[in-house]
Structures are given as structure tokens and as C-alpha cells.
Amino acid sequence: MFCSGGLLLTQSGCSGPFSSLDPQGPAAAEVAMLWWLMFGFFSLVLLTVIVLWHYAIKRRANDMVKSSAVSGWIIWGGLALPIVSIIALLLVGVPVGQRMIPLEADNAVQINITGHQWYWQVNYPDHDIQLIDTLHIPVNTVVHLHLSSADVIHSFWVPRLGVKLDLIPGRTNVLRLEASAAGIYRGQCAEYCGVGHAHMQFTVIAYEQAAFTSWLNTFKSPHLYLQEKNTDD
Ligand SMILES: [Cu+2]
Question: Which CATH architecture has domain 104-232?
Fold first, then answer.
């Protein structure tokens, strides 16, 4: 919807598996909305600065500018405008960030993720399931990801679900993830972690609740479990 009115340059980033501007989760939708608000506001600021720049060049050519006028521009343009802009960004941005912090009342699906050079180890502690580079989650359900690292700093990032958080050796960070539509979402390590960093990708598969339950049930049958493991490998 927004993309139809955007610039050609921004249009190229509006869709695709790694586009934050094609959100499929509540946190992702707010991140995308914040991006468009910032894009609109700062485009306006840029336009205003360009107009004033031309105005200043013309004035300078015609006559000397009074020092009181200069200090007025510095106070309003150099101090007041940035302060108001930063406060507005904080007022909108902090609640968006809160969306990614787990809540006690979530009743969430728990998943442990360990970053390795260069793969993602995925563990479902309540179901004794181990996977590599693939997460299976139910749709419209909060998932808590417990992120840690076995070696260096990595960063878990799923652009279309709007979540990103570092995996730091020696500590566990918890991220709140929620998808609003079933589908396959691509993720990527977002912190340079060595020569294999660019290939440290993963997939998030979001199922309708019934399909997720039947996926979990495949692990109760050894025969189906082996099939699933082979598929994921
Ligand atoms: Cu990396």
C-alpha cells in the first residue's frame, strides 16, 4: 500500500524474503510503520534544509545577514528541532522496542537457540526436539527465544517478523517473537562473526495452530521423527 507512493529506490526494498517493509507480525508491523513515519518526517526536514540553503545563498549574495538572525536559526534549527525530533522518536520508538521484550503473562512457546560459527542450534526444551537452522512456530502465538552463543557474538534477525537481538557468549538474551500469518520467513545473522557469516542463515516456518500441533506430534513417533530430521538436514 505504502510502496505505491514511494520512490523507485525504496520500492526495491518493499518486498522479498528479507524486507522489513513487508511485515507479518505485530512487532514487525510497528517497526515498518515507524520506518515510514521517520522516512516521511526526515524527507520533510531534508526538503526544508534544501530550501533554506538556497535562500541563504541568495541572501548572502545580496546583503549581509544580521548576527541575531543567525543565532535564531542556530537555536531553532540546530537545537529545538533536533530535541523535539529525538523526543518524538523516543515516544514512538520505545513502545515498539517493548514489543520485543518477553512478558510474564505471555504463556509462550519456549525455544532455545545457540549460535555457532556458522549455524543455529534450535532446541525445544518442553518437547526434547533438536533442529539445525530451522524454527517451527505456531501462528498468532507468542514465542520466547532464549538466545545464547557458543563462541562469538551473533545476531538473530528475521526482518519480516521485526525482531533482532544479539547472541552474546556467557549470557542468555530473551526475545519475543510472533508471526501473524502462516508462511516461511527467512532469517540471517546480523553481526559479523567470521568468514562464514554471510551464509549463517535460517528459516522460520509458521504454522496454523493445528498444523503446529501435528508437527510436534511427529516427534512422538520415532518413524516420523526420523523423516522430519532427514527433511531438515
Ligand atoms: Cu554472523
Answer: Sandwich (2.60)
